[in-house]
Amino acid sequence: MASGQDLLDPEFLKRLEYLDFAAKKIASGEGRGERPSSAPGRAVMFRDHRSYAAGDDIRYIDWNVYLRLDELVIKEFEAEERLNVAIVVDRSDSMNFGLHNKFEVAVRIAAAIGYVGLSHFDSVVVMPHPPGPPSRAAPLTGKGQRRELLRRLADLRPLGGGRFADTVRALPASPRGAMLIVILSDFFDEAGFEGACAQVRARHARGLGVHIVDPLEIHPELLGPVRLKDLETGRERILDVDEAFLERYRREIDLHLERVERFCRESEFGFARVETSVPFDASVLAILRKGRILRS
Fold first, then answer.
1. Half-sphere exposure of 161 (CA within 13 A, CB side)
2. Same domain, 112 and 178
3. pLDDT digits (tens, 9 = 90+) for 51-93
4. Cβ pair 240, 224 in contact under 8 A
5. Whether residues 136 and 189 fall in one domain
6. Could you give the CA distance from residue 83 to residue 35 in angstroms, rounded to a whole number?
7. Using one digit for the tens of pLDDT, what is the confidence trace for 172-190?
8. Residue 114 CB: number of other CB atoms within 10 A?
9. Whole-angstrom Cα distance, residue 255 to residue 73?
């Protein structure tokens, strides 16, 4: 399992700094409040040009356009929007599995999103599923809280299960501004993952589902008599696995993958599927883009 030293290792910190730098290159602006909003506020992001009209503030004339085209145009901007990000990390028993261990991958992705977030967003919350002490889910703000974020994540260990909806419901109230809830999970919940998505909508938050899958789940290397254990419920069965059984299993796992993606999209969530074998940096940047966290 990943240890606290893994997340605080200088090499891993270098990778986080690289991802933060790459995120800044992708983002359309720098500093706080980089997302567009129709709400009134301080204008920080260029949107478009329009023709100059008498009475317009001459400070917003685009003189470069005037020199090129001999035309007076005004630069228009969009108002900033505060964004608070909550990262829900599934640490139920089914995540403690895989060729590359899904839980370890989820923790590292959470570290990267949170690390970037403390530069770009207004607050970051990490909530494990099942939850830990409420004090460990207190919002963090600013670059100075990066080490605390990594320490909190480093302390996480796989821990049983429970209803995902209850974990999302237990998230602390969002400070002023919009909220994005990122769920890092394999979405194996006997009670159904749909309830967690419903809780996201009930909070009037945006959602981003990050479905973490491992090659051993997609292409299991099993044949002959095997003892199988359901990591979520603890139930065990002895089965004689043959090619026909594996074909049925593959159909079921394909249905699960399709169901999760379809439900997220129908719920107007962002969605990203991460295979644990995919390079970490590429996965994180894809998540930031697909979650509309950064504008490209």
1. 18
2. yes
3. 888 767 788 888 888 888 888 888 876 555 567 899 999 999 8
4. yes
5. yes
6. 8
7. 877 677 889 999 999 988 7
8. 25
9. 53
- Give ∠ CA 231-235-239 in degrees, rounded to 5: 100
- Considering only CA atoms, give the Rg of the chain: 22
Does 156 share its domain with 228?
yes
Query: Where residue 248 sits, what CATH number does that domain have?
Result: 3.40.50.410
| DSSP 8-state symbol, 277 | T
The range of the structural domain enclosing residue 160 comes to 4-28+82-290
Give the residue among 34, 38, 41, 280 at the shortest CA–CA distance from 180. Answer: 34
Which residue in this structure is represented by tokens 């969605």? Answer: 271
Instruction: Give tens-digit pLDDT for 202-243.
Output: 888 999 999 999 999 988 877 777 777 766 667 777 877 888
What pLDDT is stored for residue 124 in this prediction? 92
How is residue 167 written in tokens? 């974990």
* CA 111 – CA 237 distance, rounded (Å): 36
Single out the residue of 178, 19, 181, 202 nearest to residue 109, CA to CA: 19
Residues 189 and 66 both lie in one domain: no
- H or E element, residue 64: helix 63-69
Instruction: Give yes or no: residues 238 and 112 share one domain.
Output: yes
Residue tagged 């970051």 (tokens): 124
Distance CA 19, CA 109 (A): 11
Q: Which residue has the higher pLDDT, 128 or 40?
A: 128
